[in-house]
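As noted in the main text, all predictions were made from sequence alone. Below is one such record, for peptide-methionine (R)-S-oxide reductase.
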Amino acid sequence: MKKREEMTDIQVHVCLNQGTEYPFSGKLFDQQKKGLYRCVVCHSPLFVSDTKFDAGCGWPSFFEAISPEAIRYLDDYKLSHPRVEIRCGQCDSHLGHLFQDGPPPTGLRYCVNSVSMAFEDVESGEIIEG
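Prediction:
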């Protein structure tokens, strides 16, 4: 588990304070390799690359979580319209939001801050933090 003092300022802002990174700014936004997306704080698996798609929104988007317990869902009323906040099911780190405008087969769009994840390349084993 990554401690607060080991995190970058933007990781603290997003993961611990429910902030948002600027769109199109994250290292994992345009990641095309095959692999596993993990929580940057606790390293729990969240998404596989086969579920990633380009939603054109500026953040990494996925149509399905790796498992039902990987993600925690909370009602978010911070804006003028209600949203569903998504957090890591293991450590409760803020990830982003869930929308109902994704592609088949789920129709869901997990819109995730790049800095809240680490990508594990299946071929090289390299880990890239967003």
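The chain has a mean pLDDT of 94. The first strand starts at residue 35 and ends at 39. These features were considered when defining construct boundaries for the mutagenesis experiments described in Section 2.9.
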